[in-house]
Write a structure and sequence with these properties.
It contains 4 helices and 11 strands; from the N terminus they run ββααββββαβαββββ. By secondary structure, the chain is an alpha+beta fold. The chain folds into 2 domains: about 130 residues, Thiol Ester Dehydrase, Chain A, CATH 3.10.129.10; about 90 residues, Roll (Thiol Ester Dehydrase, Chain A). It has an 11-stranded antiparallel sheet.
């Protein structure tokens, strides 16, 4: 893949991605989870270019983790298509910040957008205050919105049930399941998988992390306007992930 960097602005950065063969589903469209991976990638690329690379975080014992995502895909993104993604931080509070990613064709037509809520933790996993230098460097206003949440109703008796066992390749450098893997698992439970009707919106909340080899129970059910989904740890019932699809 060629260099993805196109330009950098005061409030955001723009990158190009070409949809690769292994990133497309059998219908030839980009898998929704790949957009989460792109959004995570552009966030780090933008951070690196502003002086906050991974070594900066490692030296201070800090890390960003994804707490919630809202994403809408309005138009199909096809195998081999080159898309343009602009990323910027649009608000922050004490321990978290929200990034927006806008996905367009090269001639400017809107394809999708994502909001990703990141929380800052220390090397013991505790929430810590976002340093003041971030707001100054990224030109971030105080958020006028709340951290993303997903509230689900009771699980009905006829919910679609499944079991997921975490595989090593689904882990990220922090040793946890990458957020995109949760969306893959969700999409696999939906009746119209693959090839979702568009536009489609996902609301995702990551409540806890899963590790290698863990067995997870997935529950998915229709809720009137779409689908609800949750994932729990089979060993103790801990809820790890909640989602709604519209």
């Amino acid at each position: 893949m060629t260099d993805r960097v196109i330009s950098q602005q005061d409030v955001g950065s723009v990158f190009d991605y070409r949809v690769r063969f292994d990133e497309a589903a059998p219908d030839g469209r980009l898998r929704p989870s790949v957009l989460l991976r792109y959004a995570q990638d552009v966030a780090w690329l933008d951070s690196d270019r502003r002086g906050f690379d991974r070594s900066w975080y490692r030296e201070r014992g800090l890390a960003w983790v994804v707490r919630a995502i809202e994403m809408e895909i309005a138009r199909p993104i096809e195998l081999g298509q080159t898309i343009r993604i602009e990323t910027r931080v649009i608000g922050q509070r004490k321990v978290w910040a929200r990034r927006r990613a806008d996905v367009r064709t090269l001639d400017g037509n809107a394809l999708a957008w994502l909001h990703t809520d990141w929380v800052l933790i220390d090397d013991r996993g505790r929430l810590v205050r976002v340093p003041a230098i971030f707001a100054e460097t990224f030109h971030v206003p105080v958020a006028t919105f709340d951290l993303g949440r997903v509230t689900l109703g009771p699980v009905p008796g006829d919910a679609i049930n499944g079991t997921v066992v975490v595989r090593p390749h689904e882990l990220d450098p922090m040793g946890h399941v990458n957020n995109a893997a949760y969306l893959d698992w969700l999409e696999e439970t939906l009746p119209d998988h693959p090839g979702p009707a568009l536009p489609r919106r996902w609301q995702l909340e990551f409540a806890a992390s899963a590790g290698a080899g863990e067995s997870l129970t997935a529950e998915t059910w229709p809720d009137g306007t779409g689908w609800s989904h949750r994932l729990v740890r089979a060993s103790d019932g801990t809820e790890l992930f909640r989602a709604r699809v519209r």
